[in-house]
């Protein structure tokens, strides 16, 4: 089969190579799937750079989530059969940027019929993260104000849709006019272009001086620092990631004075510590998708030979929505 592999770490465009490799065979509890679609996630960029918390042995194929058709099931796998359309995590080092991939059965779920292959492939990590963050960690309530940073990106666009589905007022912060249009299309009640506007006074004005009840921050750095200036009393700042490249150092005295919470989310740990919550969340996300309340924003569908460039552009932050390797292209 053909698969993108890296034998050394570096920038995606420099280290990824499309090679011919042996077809994978399933281990115990695993499935082999024919890859139908694989979105590019920021962790794929970090995997290439050697900066992700998981470091598969070299060489390996990135692509951390996917939608696929089951080809073969390994020993001990129940509930799946060849021909099933599924979504979930790829079992690295045999990731989704390939013609075939491995998946672990506990992290594999039925793909909703209401979604295309590219959409279904994008329903897992970003939407699970958003749902766990907004509901389990931050306790977002109907009528509250949610501030979403990087609102036109893969993770941010999911949070905007989930916030609206929960009945919140959503403010989306983006970088550039094109991304502002995307955030509006996603349903954000107010969109702020950080390249030309300061979101702090705009959030205060929109909320009548109260501030945002929940901040969804996958960026970090100065974005986090400025979010503390427009967080509401008893608000919650969700720490999702550090795509901006800088890990902030919170001023805990400020959190004390304003009575807000700094809430961390490492969604991957739930797969190990309470996998039933992930199963339940998938069912809820599938329901929301079937009812048309959420739908992954697919901005680009790429053939297999264009994956490396797609990973590069996601790493540069120049894309909107989800950039997806789609087998049908």
Verbal overview:
There is one protein chain. The protein is α/β, with parallel strands linked by helices and 329 residues long. It folds into two domains: 2-123 and 296-326, Quinone Oxidoreductase, Chain A, domain 1 (Alpha-Beta Complex), CATH 3.90.180.10; 126-268, NAD(P)-binding Rossmann-like Domain (Rossmann fold, 3-Layer(aba) Sandwich), CATH 3.40.50. The protein is 32% helix and 26% strand. The protein is built from twelve helices and 15 strands. The chain has helices at 12-15, 42-49, 117-121, 125-137, 154-165, 177-186, 199-206, 221-227, 252-258, 268-273, 275-290, 307-316, and strands at residues 2-6, 16-20, 30-39, 65-73, 85-89, 100-104, 108-110, 145-149, 169-174, 190-193, 212-217, 231-239, 261-264, 298-302, 322-326. Strands 3, 4, 5, 6, 7, 14 and 15 form a seven-stranded mixed beta sheet that branches. A six-stranded parallel beta sheet has the order 10-9-8-11-12-13, with helices on both faces. Helix 2 crosses helix 12, helix 4 packs across helix 5 (154-165) and helix 4 crosses helix 11 (275-290). The longest helix has 16 residues, at 275-290. The protein is globular. The two termini are 17 Å apart. The model has no long low-confidence stretch (mean pLDDT 96).
Set out the fold topology.
Layout lengths: L1 E5 L5 H4 E5 L9 E10 L2 H8 L15 E9 L11 E5 L10 E5 L3 E3 L6 H5 L3 H13 L7 E5 L4 H12 L3 E6 L2 H10 L3 E4 L5 H8 L5 E6 L3 H7 L3 E9 L12 H7 L2 E4 L3 H6 L1 H16 L7 E5 L4 H10 L5 E5 L3
Parallel strand pairs: 8-9, 8-11, 9-10, 11-12, 12-13, 14-15
Antiparallel strand pairs: 1-2, 3-4, 3-6, 3-15, 4-5, 5-7
Helix pairs in contact: 2-12, 4-5, 4-11
């Amino acid at each position: 089969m053909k698969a993108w592999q890296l034998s050394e770490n570096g920038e995606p465009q420099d280290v990824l190579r499309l090679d011919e490799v042996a077809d994978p065979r399933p281990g115990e509890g695993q499935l082999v799937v024919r890859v139908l679609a694989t979105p590019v996630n920021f962790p794929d960029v970090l995997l290439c750079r050697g900066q992700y918390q998981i470091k598969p042995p070299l060489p390996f194929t990135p692509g951390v989530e996917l939608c696929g058709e089951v080809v073969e099931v390994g020993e001990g796998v129940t509930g799946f059969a060849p021909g099933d359309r599924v979504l979930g995590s790829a079992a690295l080092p045999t990731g989704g940027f390939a013609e075939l991939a491995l998946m672990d059965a506990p992290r594999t779920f039925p793909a909703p019929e209401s979604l295309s292959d590219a959409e279904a492939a994008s329903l897992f990590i970003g939407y699970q993260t958003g749902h766990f963050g907004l509901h389990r960690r931050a306790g977002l309530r109907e009528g509250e104000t949610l501030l979403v940073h990087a609102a036109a990106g893969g993770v941010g666009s999911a949070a905007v849709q989930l916030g609206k589905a929960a009945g919140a007022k959503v403010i989306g912060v983006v970088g550039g006019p094109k991304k502002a249009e995307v955030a509006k299309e996603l349903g954000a009640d107010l969109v702020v272009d950080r390249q030309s506007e300061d979101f702090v006074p705009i959030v205060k004005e929109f909320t009548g001086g109260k501030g945002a009840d929940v901040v969804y921050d996958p960026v970090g750095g100065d974005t986090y620092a400025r979010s503390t200036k427009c967080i509401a009393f008893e608000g919650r700042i969700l720490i999702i990631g550090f795509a901006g490249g800088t890990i902030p150092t919170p001023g805990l005295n400020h959190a004390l004075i304003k009575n807000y919470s700094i809430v961390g989310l490492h969604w991957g740990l739930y797969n190990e510590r309470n996998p039933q919550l992930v199963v339940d969340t998938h069912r809820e996300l599938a329901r929301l998708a079937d009812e048309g309340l959420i739908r992954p924003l697919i901005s680009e569908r790429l053939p297999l030979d264009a994956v490396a460039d797609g990973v590069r552009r996601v790493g540069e932050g120049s894309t909107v929505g989800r950039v997806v390797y789609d087998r049908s292209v």
